[in-house]
């Protein structure tokens, strides 16, 4: 809404290709305060806006650094009424955000765009994103199960809320890769699934569930490309 009220255009003008034209955002937007109510997406820290394009049954979005909110307000009180199923799904999204950004292609290995305003929102793994991603993984290991099991454990829900934002800073600069990319066809092919804990009048698959479904196979596949990074991610989750 902020983008299209600031720079009016056809809906698909800024939408990622190949569904949209993928035009870069022309300039700064109006101030935007983001107040998350789940502990998963990290959207209060990123320049990515995702939506369902119902006319073609596809999930797509817009990605540009100008979309980043001016301020994110992270308050665990906003998570008290989250059903446990939503805590689990959004928490698994945090988990995959952090691992994917930490194991993404290094920023020095990415192709240089023709001009600066064509730089993607995601730049590849880098030293700054690494810090946020690894710390988010440690917090997921420590607090996700507690947040799932007890809605009154405000410390756990608050730390998962914070982990979502921290992972958002990580992947909001480094990017994600195969698990998130593969979640799009998973989501678009759901026709009869009504998950517990979600009030909906149509079939859906929660985003975190669609992402984590293929994540184990993906990380087994990508581990050989950079074993050390995958080992460090596993260590952050408490493995030997």
UniProtKB/TrEMBL annotation:
Protein keywords: Mitochondrion, Oxidoreductase, Transit peptide
Domain annotation Alcohol dehydrogenase iron-type/glycerol dehydrogenase GldA: ranges: 11-76
Molecular function terms from GO: alcohol dehydrogenase (NAD+) activity; hydroxyacid-oxoacid transhydrogenase activity; metal ion binding
Name of a matching Pfam family: Fe-ADH
Localization annotation: Mitochondrion
Enzymatic reactions: (S)-3-hydroxybutanoate + 2-oxoglutarate = (R)-2-hydroxyglutarate + acetoacetate; 4-hydroxybutanoate + 2-oxoglutarate = (R)-2-hydroxyglutarate + succinate semialdehyde
Entries under SUPFAM superfamilies matching the protein: Dehydroquinate synthase-like
EC id: 1.1.99.24
InterPro entries assigned to the protein according to its UniProt record, in alphabetical order: ADH_Fe/GldA, ADH_Fe_C, Alcohol_dehydrogenase_Fe, HOT
Gene Ontology CC terms, in alphabetical order: mitochondrion
Residues covered by the Fe-containing alcohol dehydrogenase-like C-terminal domain: 124-239
PANTHER family (UniProt xref): ALCOHOL DEHYDROGENASE, HYDROXYACID-OXOACID TRANSHYDROGENASE, MITOCHONDRIAL
Family classification: Belongs to the iron-containing alcohol dehydrogenase family. Hydroxyacid-oxoacid transhydrogenase subfamily.
Protein name (database record): hydroxyacid-oxoacid transhydrogenase
């Amino acid at each position: 809404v902020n983008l299209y009220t600031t720079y009016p255009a056809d809906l698909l003008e800024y939408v990622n290709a190949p569904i949209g034209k993928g035009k870069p955002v022309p300039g700064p937007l109006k101030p935007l305060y983001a107040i998350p109510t789940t502990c998963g997406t990290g959207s209060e820290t990123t320049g990515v806006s995702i939506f369902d394009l119902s006319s073609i049954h596809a999930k797509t979005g817009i990605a540009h650094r100008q979309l980043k909110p001016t301020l994110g307000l992270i308050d665990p009180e906003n998570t008290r009424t989250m059903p446990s199923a939503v805590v689990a799904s959004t928490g698994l999204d945090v988990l995959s955000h952090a691992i994917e950004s930490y194991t993404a292609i290094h920023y020095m290995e990415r192709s240089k765009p023709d001009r600066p305003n064509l730089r993607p929102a995601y730049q590849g793994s880098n030293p700054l994103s690494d810090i946020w991603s690894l710390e988010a993984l440690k917090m997921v290991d420590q607090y996700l199960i507690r947040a799932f099991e007890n809605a009154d454990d405000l410390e756990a829900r608050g730390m998962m809320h914070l982990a979502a934002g921290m992972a958002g800073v990580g992947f909001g600069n480094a990017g994600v890769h195969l698990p998130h990319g593969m979640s799009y066809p998973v989501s678009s092919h759901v026709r009869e699934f009504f998950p517990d804990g979600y009030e909906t009048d149509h079939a859906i698959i929660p985003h975190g569930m669609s992402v984590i479904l293929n994540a184990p196979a993906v990380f087994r596949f990508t581990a050989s490309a950079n074993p050390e990074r995958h080992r460090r991610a596993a260590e952050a989750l408490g493995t030997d």
